[in-house]
Structure prediction request, 231 residues.
Amino acid sequence: MLELYIGNKNYSSWSMRPWVLLRHFGIPFKEVMLRFDGFEPGSAFKQAASQLAPTAKVPVLVHGDLVVWDTLAIAEYLAEYADEHFPEHALWPRNQAARARARSLCAEMHAGFGALRQACPMNVEAALPEVGARVLAEQPAVAADLARIVAMWSGALAASGGPFLFGGFTIADAYYAPVVARLRSYALPVPPAVGGYLDRVWASPGVAAWVADALAEHDFLAFEEPYRQHR
Prediction:
């Protein structure tokens, strides 16, 4: 049985990606929540996470004696696992060229968009449109990140015909699901075609299940809240 260790669903964008992937495709797994109580070495979260992987971060996938950390490594492992055990599901696009483009998009997310991630941390339950407007006006790097994401998604949707970036739902869509959450929480403006994509991702089975769980947490963590004083 696959075991996936994650953090709080309201805040943990990296945990969201493999969880959504597994849930969307109906691949059985056991979820283990490591609640965020702080990221200092002595925190309960760091102590528990350090027992799993040398990074002391989540997500972590455990499959028997194998431990896989880093979201992209987990996604690649799950793609191979699905090929063997659930061949009806293609987690990457089946077409080689589309698969290469999807990997490129995921790698860009993995390494980039630091301005957007820093200024607009994931917070599923929050509605912060005034913060989003101020951030866009005051931080050109965030506006540049948003423009790149819109261009990337628009190009992929036009090439594939949708409804998702590469036709059917793939790792690429799971990888950008936390970005969708950010754009919604901070009401960052996107053109209508991209707005439709946001709605489709939000309604997809894995994302909808994650969002429902996030909204049910009711766990306000002040150190994760640069813009709110309370729920």
